[in-house]
Amino acid sequence: MSEGEIARLREEVEEKKTLIANIRNKPWRMKRRLTHLKEAQAFVDKFEGALGKGKGKWARKWYAYKVMMTKKWIKFQRDFENFRTACIPWERKIKEVESHFGSSVASYFIFLRWMYGMNLVLFGFTFGLVVIPEVLMGLPYGSIPRKTVPRAEQETAQDYSVLMDFNGYCKYSVLFYGYYNDQRTIGLLKFRLPLAYLMVGIGTFGYSLMVVIRTMAKNADVGGGDGEEGEFTFAWKMFTSWDYLIGNAETADNKYASITTSFKESIVDEQENQKDENIHLRRFLRVLANFMIICSLGGSGYLIYFVVKRSQEFATRDDLSWYEKNEVEIIMSLLGLVCPPLFETIAELEDYHPRIALKWQLGRIFALFLGNLYTFLFALFDEVNTKLEEEQAIKNASIWAMKEYYANFSRLMNDSEATPPPMDPSDVIRGPCWETAVGIEFVKLTVSDIQVTYLTILIGDFARAVIVRFLNYCWCWDLEAVYPSYGEFDISGNVLGLVFNQGMIWMGAFYAPGLVLINVLRLLSSMYYQCWAVMCTNVPHERVFKASKSNNFYMGLLLLILFLSLLPVVYTIMTLPPSFDCGPFSGKAKMFDVIMETIDLDLPAFMGTLFSYAANPGLIIPAVLLMVLAIYYLNSVSEAYKNSNNELKKKMQMARDEEKNRRNNTDSTNQVMKDLEDLLPNRSLAPPPEEPEPEPEPEVKPTKTKPGKGVKLEMDVTLASANPNARGPGGRPPGPRGPGPGGPGGPGGPGAGPGRGRGRPPPR
Amino acid sequence: MGTTASQLGKDLLSEYQELTFLTKQEILLAHKRFTELLTKDERDGANSRLPMDRILTLPELKSNPFRERICHVFSTSPQKDGSLTFEDFLDLLSAFSDSATLEIKSHYAFRIFDFDDDGTLDGSDLEKLVNCLTGETDETRLSPEEMRQLISNILEESDIDKDGTVNLSEFQHVISRSPDFVSSFKIVL
Lengths: 764, 189
Description:
The complex is a heterodimer of chains A (764) and B (189).
Chain A: H1 3-22, H2 30-51, H3 57-87, H4 91-101, H5 103-137, H6 160-164, H7 193-223, H8 233-240, H9 249-272, H10 279-316, H11 322-325, H12 327-347, H13 354-413, H14 434-471, E1 487-488, H15 491-508, H16 514-537, E2 538-539, H17 550-575, H18 593-601, H19 605-614, H20 617-664, H21 671-679, H22 706-719
Parallel strand pairs in A: 1-2
Helix pairs in contact in A: 1-2, 4-5, 5-7, 5-15, 5-16, 7-17, 10-12, 10-13, 12-13, 12-14, 13-14, 13-15, 14-15, 14-16, 15-17
Chain B: H1 10-19, H2 24-37, H3 40-44, H4 52-55, H5 59-62, H6 67-74, H7 86-95, H8 102-113, H9 123-133, H10 144-158, H11 168-176, H12 181-184
C-alpha cells in the first residue's frame, strides 16, 4: 500500500475511533447505535492490523501490543468509574429525599455529603501526620509536665462535669495543642513533629481552598454563568420547571400548585411592572427596616462582647452554676436562633420580590454570624493577651520554684554531689498555655452548636409534628392545615449553619487537632439524623422556589468564610509568641521559627542560601509587581473575550433577522438560491441553507476569539444532528460561518463531510 | 439483540456501557426492574415489549405529568402504542441520566413537548404543555384568558423568527441558558 493510502486509512480509522467514543452523545435509537458501533468496530479491527503491515515484524508486534494496551486501559478506566460511583455513600437515602421533596432539599444533603468528604480528608491529614506520631512515638502521658494533670486538679480530673468542660484529663490529651512535645525529632524515624504540626495547619487551609475553588469552577461550568436574569422567564418556567426526580404523588400535587401560582404571578407581574406605587413611602420603609436591622446586629455584637468579658471574671471564681460556665456558648447559639426570624419579620416592611428578599435575608444572617464570630474572637484575643502577660510572671515563678526544690533536696540529702531526681511532673508550676485555652473555647462552641442544632430539630420539628398529629383529634381548628401545621425544611438556614460550623472548625483546628474528629462525627450523625427528621416530620415546600445558581452562592460563602477564618490563625502564627511550656513550639520566639530551623539544620546548605536570597526584599518586590501585571493582563484578555462574545451574539441576532426578512420577502435576493428552493421538497419548516450569506464576517478573526466561536458553533453544528422529524437532506442549519479547521462536532451531522472550508458551500 | 432469560450477557453489558451514559450497576438495576414488570412467559421470549400501562406503574414515572409522552418518544414499536423494549428503556434512562449532555437532553425534551409530533412547538402544543403542568383539577388550571396571555409571552420570548412556532434550534437556544434544566431533567432508578 502506498503512503497516501496508508495515511488516508489511518485517518479513517481515527475517525471511526472518535465515532465509537462519542456514540453515546448521539440522539439515535439503540438499534441504530448498535449497528454503527459494530460496523465501526469491525472496520477498526480489520484495518488496524493492516496498518502495521510492512513495517517489520517487531514494529508490528509493538503496534498490536499498543492497541491491546489501549483497549485494556479504556476498560480499566470504565471499571474504575463504575467502582467510584459505587463507593459514593448514601445515594439511596438522598434519592429517597429527592423523590419526596424535590431537588432543592436534596441539594442540601448533597452539600452535606461533600463537606463530609472534605472533612474526612482533613481528618486523615491531621491524625495521620500529627496525632498518631505523637501517640506512637512521643512520650507517654505523665512523663513531662505538659502531659500531666497538675497536682491541684487531680482529684477532680475524672469528674464528668469537668470532662464535659474539656478540663481535667481531656485538657491534657492529644485533643489539644498543649499536649504536644517540642522535641525536634521523635522516635526511630526521626519524625519532625513541630514541623509536621505547622505544615498540617497550613495544609488544611491550602487543601480546603483548592477543593472549594475546584468545585466552584465545576459548578460555574454547568450553570452557564452569564445569562441575564429575567431573560426567558416564561419559557424557562414552562420548559424547565418540572422536577423529573419527583416520585411521590403528594409532592407532585404541590409542584402543580406552585407552578400554577408562579404562572399566574408572572402574568400579573408583567402587567404590573408599569404601575408606579408610592415610591417615597416604600423607600422610607426600607431605610427604616435596614436601620432596625443594623441596630439589632450591633446589639447582638455588644451582647457577645459583654458576655465574654463576664466569663473572664467567672474564670477567677470557683463556684459557678452550669449556666454561668457555658454562658458564652448559650448566648451565641440563642442569638443564631432568634435573630433570623426577627430579620424576616422586619423584612416584611420592605416589600421586595421573594427572590430578592431571600438574598437580603441570607446576607443579613451572614452578617449576623460573622459579626458574632469576630466579636467572639476579639474578646478571645483580649483574654490571650492577659494570659501572655501572666506568663512572664509565672515563668519567673516556676524557675524560682525549681531552684528552691533543688536547694531543698541537696539540703535534705546533705550531699551536694548527687543529682536530684527531676521534680514530679504534676508538681511543676504551669504556665497559662493560651493556645489550649483558645482550643477549648472553640471546642466548647462547636459542641454547644451541635447540641443546639439537634435540640432544635427535635423540638422544633419532631415535637411539633407529634403534637399536630395527635392533638388534632381533639382540637377546635385543623392543626394540620391552619397553624402550626408541619414544618418545612429550611434549606438556607441549614446550609448557612453548616458553612459557619465549618468556619469555626477551620479556625479552631490549629489549636485543637481533635476538633476535626468531632466535626467528622458530627457530620456523619447529622446525615442520618436529618434524613430521618426530614422524611418523618417535614412536608414538601408549598412555594417551591428555586434559588437557582444557589450552589455557587453557597460555595462562594464557604470561600469567604475560609479566608476569614484563615486571618486569625495566620495572625497568631505570625505575631504571638508561643507559650513557653506547652505545645510543639514552646521555647521558640515565634511559631514559624520551626521552618527556619528546619531549613538550617535539615536541608542541604545551598537550599538555605537559596531561601535567604528568596527572602530578599529586592527579589520579592519585583515578583509582586510581576504578579500584579499578570493579573492586569489576564483581566484585559478576559474583557476582550467578553466583548467578542457580545459581538458574536449580535451577529447571530442579525443573521436571524436577515433570515426572517428574507422569508417575509418573497423575492429572494439570489437567483441560485431561488432555484435551489424550488428543487427542495416542500418543507415549510426547513430554513433555506445559509449559502448566499454575504461574507461580511471578517475572515480574519484573531485566534483569540476561537474559544468563543467554538462554543457557539458547537451548538450550531449539533443542530444538524439527526432529528428525524425536522430536517431533510438539503436543509442544513445556518451553515459554516468560518469554522476553524476540523470544525467542532466531528463526524455525525448529515452532510457534514470532511473539509468544511471557510464559507464554502457544503460538498453536496 | 435483545435480552433473553433473566441474565444479561457480558458482551451485551459492555456494549450497552459503550452506547449509553449509564454505569454497569445502573444497567443491571434497569434490567432487574424491567424484568420484574414482565410476566412469566414474556420473560422467556427474546425482545419482549412492555406495554405502556405497565411501564407507568414505575414510581419514577407514575407522578410525572409527561409520562405518556416520554413513553411515546422512546418507543420503537411499529404500532406507535408507547410500548418499550429493554433497549428503549435503556435509551430512556440514558437520556435522563446525570451524565447525559445538554444536547441530548434538550433534543429529547423537545420531542417530549411536541405533542403532535410535527417537529415544532406551536400554540396547541404549548397549551397542552401548560395544562399538563398545572395539574388535573379545575382549580389549578389557568383560565383561557391567562392561557392566551401566557402563550403569547412565551412565543415572544423564544420565537426568534416569528413564525408562531418554536423549532428545535430556538428551543435549544432557550434551554441552554437555563441553569435549572440539566439538574431537573433527571430520572434515576
